[in-house]
Amino acid sequence: MNYLLRDNYVRKYHTGKNRLMHRIIWEESNGPVPDGFELHHINGDEQDNRLENLQMLSPSDHQRLHKGWIRDGEGNWLKPCPICKQYKNIDTEYYRRKRGPLALTYGGIGECRTCNKIQSRKYQAENIELIKAKRKAYYQDNKEKLRKKMAQYYYKNKDSISTNSKLRYYGKDREMILAKNREYRRKNRDKINAQARDKRAITKKQQENMESVL
Fold first, then answer.
1. Which of 80-84, 97-101, 169-173 has the highest mean pLDDT?
2. For the whole prediction, is pTM greater than 0.90?
3. I need a labelling partner for 46 at 20 to 30 A (CA). Which of 40, 68, 77, 210 fits?
4. d(CA 116, CA 31)
5. Cα–Cα distance for residue pair 20/40, rounded to 1 Å
């Protein structure tokens, strides 16, 4: 005897217990459904239990299909943005977590990166004082932790930080700046050499005074 559940799935008394009809039909042709997999109705009709309408999926893929996600020709998942309504690649067009430019104050609602930035800027313009207060409070509550984290990052990446600082300093005008420096040294060579001799003499005198004291 078959009967319909409130969730629109058909059940049947089979092998001594009540079971879902679509699982019975699948197992008769393909064997038991492995652990960690579920059966999906391709056309969305939970009462259409034809074998060709059933598909075995992982729970995450099953959930994505029911949320309206689709796959492109290359097998990538495309998720509809709740704001712009466009289907976009989940790996490249969405943040993996609710972060974005203002994660501390604006977490987002699962929108794409473009919409997240627009909403973040809008939120920032409307709540600038609130944002400043929250950031200040967060820093005060986590001051030592943040300082320690920044120090660890610096000592771990100080070589690359130094290189990036030089690149930011020179930028697009690197050749022009270097040319000006060379021209300045050429015109003021005697002055530069005299300053260097004076500096060496002072250093030598300081060393001699230290030795006399010792």
1. 80-84
2. no
3. 77
4. 45
5. 12
Mean per-residue pLDDT of the chain: 80
| Mean pLDDT value across residues 46-73 | 89
* CB-count exposure of residue 159 (10 Å: 0-12, 13-18, 19+): exposed
Q: Among 131, 127, 90, which Cα is nearest to 110's?
A: 90
Burial class (CB in 10 A: 0-12, 13-18, 19+), 127: middle
Cβ contacts of 51 within 8 Å, gap of 6 or more: 25, 26, 29
The owner of tokens 């005060």 is 140
Tell me 34's DSSP state.
P
User: What's the token pair of residue 109?
Assistant: 């609602």
The neighbour count for residue 39, using CB atoms within 10 Å, is 19
How buried is 15 (Cβ within 10 angstroms: 0-12 exposed, 13-18 middle, 19+ buried)?
exposed
How far is it, in rounded angstroms, from Cα 162 to Cα 57?
A: 49
